[in-house]
Fold these 3 entries.
Entry 1:
Amino acid sequence: MAERIAVPAGAARAVTLRAGDRLRIVNVAGKQVADFVAFDAGDVDHALSTLHTLVSLKRLFPTKGDQLRTNRRTPMLEITRDDTGRHDMLIAACDPWRYEYDFGVTGHRSCSDNFLEALRAWKLERHQLPQPVNFFQNMSYPDGRVEFGESLARPGDVVEVRALMSVIAAVSACPMDLNPISGYRVSDLVLEIV
């Protein structure tokens, strides 16, 4: 039986996975971006790295069958299910400064703050947070421009990763509602560990 964990809109949750465990991220209402970070459970300085991953994959957008690598290029997780087919590895997690400088808004929830809250038990600081994999985020980079598209995720779409080592993982239901990535609204996610 799967363990189910609700991730409220605009918040995050952290889980621990043993090698072989599968984590499903369920896009409950559709279009919700899920920022994802992960750490080696035995060494938090050994973390998921999107830049090392994209070099190994030789492309920007990960999908089923791809291995996500660490900052030491070690395979950490494998994508075993991908209902949506479009995810991003370049865009930084939103943070208080993104909202302040780019949108003139203070006090807005952010993925960076969400991760610090969810990972509090591991005493991680902001500078230790890796660049996230932005599951369900629909980006394009024509001629080097950065274009934020609306997520292609439909209600109930799932992305599933299988742990290749013991990991601490955190998922944020991205609070960004000021650009189109989640359809200008924020909704819940559900995590299932099987």
Entry 2:
Amino acid sequence: MRKSSFRWIYLLILLFIAADFYFQLRFSPVPFWQSDWFLWRVLVLLIILFALMLYFAIKHFHNIDIEKQKLINKFINQQDESYRRIASELHDSIGQNLIVLNNEILKVSNSYPADSPEFGELNKMNILLTESVDELRNISSAIFPNKIEKLGLKKAIESMAESAFESSGIQLSFSAGNIDGIFGNTIELNVFRIIQECINNILKHSESSQAGISVHFISGNLVIEVTDNGKGFDTKNIPEKHGLGLDNIRNRTIYCGGSIRIDSKPGKGTKIKILIPSRI
């Protein structure tokens, strides 16, 4: 409704009040402040004032939530854009330079006999550069994963989780349903990031021997459960070392329009459950 329409409504209300007040003064047999009319009007006015105060309070807090959501969205977008740019620089610039350098070393090494000391040293350099390129690609993929587009969300999460826990000594239990194609690219990336951050917290802080990751689509919601049997923590007094990672998980969950629940006690492990609606 336009503002001009509201102005006409306000004007009609004021005219009604003025007419009501005039007729009461004109025809009332007693002073108006002693009449039932006056008491009822005061009561109605107080109710209206209370309703207006409640309305503006709710609107104020709603606007705060909207601004908070905008800030979170802006932060997440800027963070992912930075990750994308760094990953691109590592892969396209530094990675390509290392490949060119490796090819030049191969050319030089091929000019020496295979049994010469020079060929052996250059071959070692070639192996080291090849390993460096592979490692650079792994780092680039971890910073901004391209496995989601290539493998799908389910396989990308599974591959990332297995790789992360491979040499950790922590036994991983992984379970995932058919979660590909439910969300757009942006939400899929944030789901991947949420689970990645949960894994990082387990590896860095939990001191656990077992961990579980479950990702399933149930009743219109993506349900993510990440558990460990580690040392846990007091959720009412979260340690600073846990705080940043958990804030990142919360922010990305909010960005996806989801909800999060963290259950943990010292010595009792940790369970994080996240629900993200499909919005279908």
Entry 3:
Amino acid sequence: MARVFVITGPSGVGKGTLIRGLMERLPDLELSVSATTREPRAGERDGVDYHFLSRDEFDRRVAAGDFVEHADYAGRSYGTLRSELEDRVAAGVPVVLEIEVQGARQVRAAMPEAVQVFIAPPSLPALRTRLVGRGTDDAAEVERRLQVAEQELAAQPEFGHVVVNDRLDDALEQLTTVVSDELD
């Protein structure tokens, strides 16, 4: 069976950047495309960056059991469609899930064999600087994400691996080592 890698951590911690670097280093990995009820950001494409669903469609698919995990985060819903995961795993392709802590817990319950990695910021002030600096959220959204982040940071001990994203190159090296070791 192919490995499933769950990569989680607070919004703005650099999960996406680290995963892009990881996939450049380990090209056999495939990224599961999550579904969300949030609006696309500039440059994001449906089916590539996310499956952008209306609230009604998301709720209908939850009721139908189409998600392996789903969670609400900062006022939006996110989830991993079962089809995104099962098709790749059945084909022997290792899959990376970039999901929130709530969803990571659901995957852990459903797939205890999945490798779980928590990406942590060096500090909350550093995370605030990143969230403000990326310019994708207004001040109220940044504050909401920071409140959620404080709760998520308390969950670090639940995860088999913790990577602190202080220096990008060091964090990427650490993440690559974790994944490579698990694939061997």
